[in-house]
């Protein structure tokens, strides 16, 4: 079996992150500019990160379903499709994006510098959809005040949760990622008692201790996002959510980003949150958090990013 090198999807939570989503303009030269960027990306990352390797700079590139078709690679990852809008008790929109850059580092300047280099290479060839600069907030808390990321898988469980294996052998070592930008109504959230907030999340706010199962509300966030396969094994994803905002514009948000070896996992969690399980028993975080974007990307292995740069067919 040929070894594959995955993009650094298994990375830990960092101090800073920049999330960029964009569409590639329709011209053949626009697509070529994107291919060229794919070829240059490893050396750009090396050049910026070498200035201080301790900053831990990484960049993941994800590709949307429409762009994948335009790249004419000859094969399509089994789970790749446009993000599916959800019309439940609350609405999860599907918004346009061909490419995701998920840039992470322990220092904001490293993220900023790499983002600037990438965007200057793509100038004229793309339409920016969104740029969000995330930051670490106290003890990895989101802006609702709860520690976010505690129950992420680690070790072998992490690898199994996020990387495609032999079930889609051509795309082994790849991953899928779903992103959603949420805006919070912090006035409404802060008007609730801490006990009510804890009931909604399913954990204690200050200590981050999880409630025992028999004390959790049926609509608690950690009940609705806890899903199993037919044998009762938990199906996990990796989240690297980041707070962002602009106090003077009264903007407070969470950028949700979830990696998994199959998008169905995150989609099931989203259905439970937005429609409810059973329907109507929805996630009350959504009463104070509005999803304004929704995108799904495939994250190819590094060899596959290189093949895309060269315009080669993907054969496995
Ligand atoms: C406004 C957006 C969101 C906020 C503020 C938020 C916040 C949190 C917090 C505070 C926790 C508990 C600590 C932890 O284990 O990380 C948590 C857990 C979790 N969240 Fe979210 N979350 C959001 C959206 C989502 C979405 C969209 C998904 C998936 C589609 C998701 C999936 C999960 C999962 C799988 C867990 C772990 C549950 C467990 O097994 O205990 N979250 N989230």
From TrEMBL:
Keywords linked to the UniProt accession: Iron, Metal-binding, Oxidoreductase, Peroxidase
Alphabetical list of NCBIfam families matching this protein: Dyp_perox_fam
Hey, what's the signal peptide range on this chain?
Answer: none
Q: Which Pfam families match?
A: Dyp_perox_C (PF20628), Dyp_perox_N (PF04261)
Ranges for domain Dyp-type peroxidase N-terminal: 13-136
Which family does this protein fall into?
Belongs to the DyP-type peroxidase family.
Extract one GO molecular function annotation from the record: heme binding
The domain of life is: Bacteria
Q: Which sequence ranges are marked TM in the entry?
A: none
This protein's name: Dyp-type peroxidase
Q: Which InterPro entries match?
A: Dimeric_a/b-barrel, Dyp_perox_C, Dyp_perox_N, Dyp_peroxidase
Q: Which residues form the Dyp-type peroxidase C-terminal domain?
A: 139-303
List the source organism. Paracoccus amoyensis
PANTHER family hit by this protein: DEFERROCHELATASE/PEROXIDASE, DYP-TYPE PEROXIDASE FAMILY PROTEIN
GO cellular component terms, A-Z: cytosol
- Names of the cofactor(s): heme b
